[in-house]
Amino acid sequence: MSKSAINSSRRKHLQTSAKLMGFILFLSEMDIAWGAKILGVRIWPAEDYTRVTLESDKALPISQQLLTNPDRLVVDVQGMELNTALKDLVAKVKPNDPYVSQIRVGQFQPGMVRLVFDLKEPIKPQLFTLDPIGEYQYRMVLDLYPATPPDPLMELVKNSARKESALEKANEEIDLIAQFATKKEKEAAKAPAAPVAQAIPEVKESITPKKQRRLITIAIDAGHGGEDPGAIGSMGSKEKHVVLSIAKRLRDKIDNDAYMRPFLTREGDYFVPLHTRVQKARRVEADLFVSIHADAFIEPRAKGASVFALSQMGASSTTARWMANKENASDLIGGINIKTQDKQVANLLLDMSTTAQIKDSLQVGQAILRQIGGFAPLHKPKVEQASFAVLKAPDIPSILVETAFISNPQEEARLNDDAYQDRIAEAILKGIRDYFSKNPPVARRSTA
Predict the structure, then answer these.
(1) Which of 40, 46, 122, 321 could bond 270 through an S-S bridge, CB–CB 3.0 to 4.6 Å?
(2) Residues 266, 275: Cα–Cα separation, whole Å
(3) CA dist., res. 120 & res. 97, Å (int)
(4) pTM (2 decimals)?
(5) Is the pLDDT of residue 214 over 90?
């Protein structure tokens, strides 16, 4: 074969290879552009933040930009064509959403969809993706946080101002009673002594009521929420809904107490990371942290309520360890932005957890367990311990109450019963009162 023929054959071979390579790249681009399928779009509005989730069968490149006058968030999703599922996102915006007024969706260019969020106020967005876990595929998550977040402590003080005023007035009246009693005692001491024969022994009893130094703040933590449903019963009951209902009942009962005030770590159906729940309790200077759950177990016959405290030395039982591991996985299911998680804070909470905190937690836990055991079966007769991440506030007694096993059909039915939910809330309240009657909170320098 001549040299020119060989060169010609090589050129044809290269051209064919180039065309084949181009076709492969084209197929690859087609796979990226049209292969992704949207499995669901969800919006979780809350005062804390609004979360928007796009779930797909493939990870998708995303980018964002904030615009002002008016405030808007523009998000571009590559590798996707506009479809019905994405258009449905527009109708999912609720009128009471604190941060989003409306969403506009359009095909910005081939293979790229643009989402425009019209905002009610300036925000600080966090945009991240989550790998498949549990029942979820790939999730693109947009968390829209307010640029100026509210101060939960100031809000709590504002909401309990009337109760604070009533407490101050009651303490002033107690002071007046004490002053009057002291004056009478001094007058009696100055009076001439009665003849011995006429002396009548007296039994002195103080009628002066005790002062309540300040309001006791109870942080109530309803487990799970939003993307994380928690355990699901055989009838389809979701733990996140059941425990929020019980938490709100407990909140209302504490609200009616003259000496306590409640704080909910979540007030609706949205996700709160575990370390954020702890931080919230600390920001409002809580005197007690009560996390409410209704868990499931691999054995449907498992039954009974439980109360847990933190352990630094390992779980008190195999079940306790299993439950702690399951609850600690909540962040992965709910969807936490790993890049923004404050690892130093997480380590601090772990390192600073003290023996005193655990001791107090065991005491209040036992008080609550006694109350629940008065009407409901108990899984264990004493407070168990395990390394629950949500119990790691270093300076707040913290307990986790498993109200019942939602995986048990009989207990699932009970958990959906209004009367049972109310009795559980009442039992927790009585246990709290019992604990603080013996362990009154110390005074604080702040007005909170």
Answers:
(1) 46
(2) 13
(3) 9
(4) 0.82
(5) no
